[in-house]
Amino acid sequence: MITPIGNRLVIKPKETILKCGLDMPKTRESENGEGMVVAIGSGINNIKVGDIVFFISYGIHKVVDVNGEKMVIVHKDDILGIRRDKE
């Protein structure tokens, strides 16, 4: 697993599954992305692992492959919002 430094997060982006079974990155649909937080740096206070967040796609610092899964590293300032489902 990747441990982000400071004010950065590691996010597993949401993918769009086509009927033919291919995975297509959602980043082509808009300039913003959505995904699940899998790791946070020490400078993050209001976001936790497991949160679904919306982020600015062009603010992605690094796209990495971790055990065959695409992960992105973003700065906390590139997070637009957190999806909070009613409990």
Overview features:
87 residues, 10 Kd Chaperonin, Protein Cpn10, Chain O, 6-stranded antiparallel beta sheet, two-stranded antiparallel ribbon, globular
Structure overview:
The protein is mainly beta and 87 residues long. The chain contains no helices and eight strands. Strand 2 (15-17) and strand 3 (23-25) form a beta hairpin. The radius of gyration is 13 Å and the shape is globular. The termini are far apart.
Mean pLDDT: 80
| Class by alpha and beta content | mainly beta
* Helical proportion, percent range: under 10%
Global Rg: 13 Å
End-to-end CA span: 30 Å
Beta-strand segment tally: 8
How many distinct folded domains? 1
**Level-2 CATH architecture:** Roll
Give, in spatial order, the strands making up the sheet with the most strands.
Answer: 6-7-1-4-5-8
Layout of helices and strands:
Blueprint: E1 8-13, E2 15-17, E3 23-25, E4 32-40, E5 52-56, E6 62-66, E7 69-75, E8 79-83
Antiparallel strand pairs: 1-4, 1-7, 2-3, 4-5, 5-8, 6-7
Condensed summary:
This protein has 87 residues and is an all-beta fold. The chain has no helices and 8 strands. The strands form 2 sheets. A 6-stranded antiparallel sheet has the order 6-7-1-4-5-8, with no helix packed on it.
